[in-house]
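Sorry to interrupt, but I need a hand with the structure work. Go ahead and set the record down below:
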Amino acid sequence: MKQIQIIIFLIIPINIIFAQTNNDIFQSLYRNNNFEGKITINQDSLISYLVKKHTEINKNIRGIQGKKIIIYMNSGLNSRNRAEAVRDSFRINNPNMPVELRYSSPFWQVYAGNFRTRTEALRAFQTIKKKYPKAFIVDALIDLKMLN
C-alpha cells in the first residue's frame, strides 16, 4: 500500500508539470500525432523567438491602426472649456459617432469617429468639415468595439 501512495505522489507532480499548455504555434506543429501527418520545419531559431516577442508586444495593444478626425485643437486659458463645449455640441448633433476629449500637452483636442480606412474617414470628413472648417484626419489607434 505504501508503494502505491509513493507512486501516486510521484505521478501527480509530473502530470502537473506536463499539463501546462504552451500556446506556441511551433510547439504544436512539432507534436506528432499518430492520426495526422508529420510536419518538418526548417528555420532559424530566431524566428520562433521573434514570433513569441511579436505576440507579447501585441497582447498589450488595445486596438488597431485606423483614422480619427480632429475637430478641435487649441491651447490657452479657456481651451479646455472650449474643447468640452465642442465635444458636447458634436455629441448632440452626431449621436451615432463616438467623440472624445484628449489632452496632449499643451493642446486640448476633440477627436471624432473611429474609421478603419482613410476612405471611411473622408466620407464623414466631408460632412464634418462644413461645421468644423479646421478639422483634419489623423492616424490613430481605434477600438474595434467602437467602429462606426
Observations:
- Confidence is low (pLDDT under 50) at residues 14-22.
